[in-house]
Amino acid sequence: MASPGSGFWSFGSEDGSGDPDNPGTARAWCQVAQKFTGGIGNKLCALLYGDTEKPAEGGGSQTPRAATRKAACACDHKPCSCSKADVNYAFLHATDLLPACDGERPTLAFLQDVMNILLQYVVKSFDRSTKVIDFHYPNELLQEYNWELADQPQNLEEILMHCQTTLKYAIKTGHPRYFNQLSTGLDMVGLAADWLTSTANTNMFTYEIAPVFVLLEYVTLKKMREIIGWPGGSGDGIFSPGGAISNMYAMMIARFKMFPEVKEKGMAAVPRLIAFTSEHSHFSLKKGAAALGIGTDSVILIKCDERGKMIPSDLERRILEAKQKGFVPFLVSATAGTTVYGAFDPLLAVADICKKYKIWMHVDAAWGGGLLMSRKHKWKLSGVERANSVTWNPHKMMGVPLQCSALLVREEGLMQNCNQMHASYLFQQDKHYDLSYDTGDKALQCGRHVDVFKLWLMWRAKGTTGFEAHVDKCLELAEYLYNIIKNREGYEMVFDGKPQHTNVCFWYIPPSLRTLEDNEERMSRLSKVAPVIKARMMEYGTTMVSYQPLGDKVNFFRMVISNPAATHQDIDFLIEEIERLGQDL
């Protein structure tokens, strides 16, 4: 594939204008829009209100019922700034917006009010005085609102209200005190990129309908392969709908590499295949095996040490067992950043075993791949350069808005050969441009969302050093939490030693359990503590952190940090909140 070149494509190494909870003025919200959208909102205001005249009030009303805008007129000046009539959303429907005749002004008014709703939500997401969640039970939400779909259209006033209601009950995943999932935070440049992507509304299968996005995918995947350590960024890759699909791609390509006839003849034409992964690995490996007809029984779970790392000697033992039974080992999936413990498998030792037995080595770095951006922490993935394929989710540790997952493959052309079907209505061979940029035939999907632009634009805005600072800060916050609670009364660590990732796993021990003997009764009572505290967190709306059991360990908290908005004060708050909510248990 020819290189797109350098220059534009290449990578570089609450002043609030009014209270967002109140309607505010149009001028104030234009200023907020300009602040958060780089002037796009201000240009919309100019289109709506004219270049020189902006009304003093009535702009970003929180209650759409009261919102009015100037209607389109019959003059020749576009966009016009004259005032002919007021627009009342109660009398407007989607059919009055573009491409309707004279739909320009109501469209701009409607989109500006949608933008106002979004900007208010963005500002609130970073306000620590607001709730992370306004929790209601499913039956309450179902009864409180009519969510059913109807035959007749609703007016735009009702549509705006639906937007507000939806965000009212949404989880503020960008809130500095939201620690519930691996994907947290709300990046402003990534958000802007997502808006642009939706506006462009195209598909990724051919260069002819997504020229810039296809080139950006080429550039970005090449850069990621360089960071992994493949010479010159050689190889292949694709952005997929999440790490589970990326892992399934890897399993599918590994199978094709060993038995290419499986593509036409199916599993009946190949011997019993066996995949190996750690007992702490992601469940998607078994899901992929089920989807591909390999079967979950053909995924062998390898023992881990007390820190959650795969034990290489057990991997080799299980490979030999499978071969003795006449089965064919075809894939080892090592994990770089397990979901619960944040453990990094010993990739160099795994690579040696895969080389010895000629087995495809995949690294699931969905969670840990972001550490490759950090000079301080990338050593934890030593050996990843020896992998045949790597899953890397920038929507996790790197804070790119969901979804953004990449599957990187060391051998160029293998993914294309595995998946291509030569659909002649899309991939004509006599097009007038370089057909290597028609990447859709190497994907399982036909329709494929543009996921690359968020990552590319954020990378341009931050540089590699910006992502490095992001990663380093999050890991420093995790170490800060660990240092506070490791010897604090009422806390027990799930495993000894400083965590390798931002995963901090611990039990909170209420006063009533601290003097009990370590027996079955204590474990039974302790297993109920984390779920109750989590439920109270959600009902108060103050913070969110995940919990789970693992193996013989009863429910414990798994704290993860990927949001650069979090601070030491937020970690202190979390500890105090756990103690406040759990002291009476």
Automatic annotation (TrEMBL):
Record-listed E.C. numbers: 4.1.1.15
Membrane topology: Peripheral membrane protein; Lipid-anchor
Top-level class of the enzyme under EC nomenclature: lyase
Annotated region (Disordered), positions in chain: 1-24
Record PTM N6-(pyridoxal phosphate)lysine, positions in chain: 396
GO cellular component, one term: cytoplasmic vesicle
Cofactor(s) needed for function: pyridoxal 5'-phosphate
Keywords of the record: Cell membrane, Cell projection, Cytoplasm, Cytoplasmic vesicle, Decarboxylase, Golgi apparatus, Lipoprotein, Lyase, Membrane, Neurotransmitter biosynthesis, Palmitate, Phosphoprotein, Pyridoxal phosphate, Synapse
A biological process term (GO) from this entry: gamma-aminobutyrate shunt
SUBUNIT field: Homodimer.
Biological function: Catalyzes the production of GABA.
Protein family per UniProt: Belongs to the group II decarboxylase family.
Name this protein carries in UniProt: Glutamate decarboxylase 2
The organism of origin for this protein: Callithrix jacchus
High-level lineage: Eukaryota, Metazoa, Chordata, Craniata, Vertebrata
Gene encoding the protein: GAD2
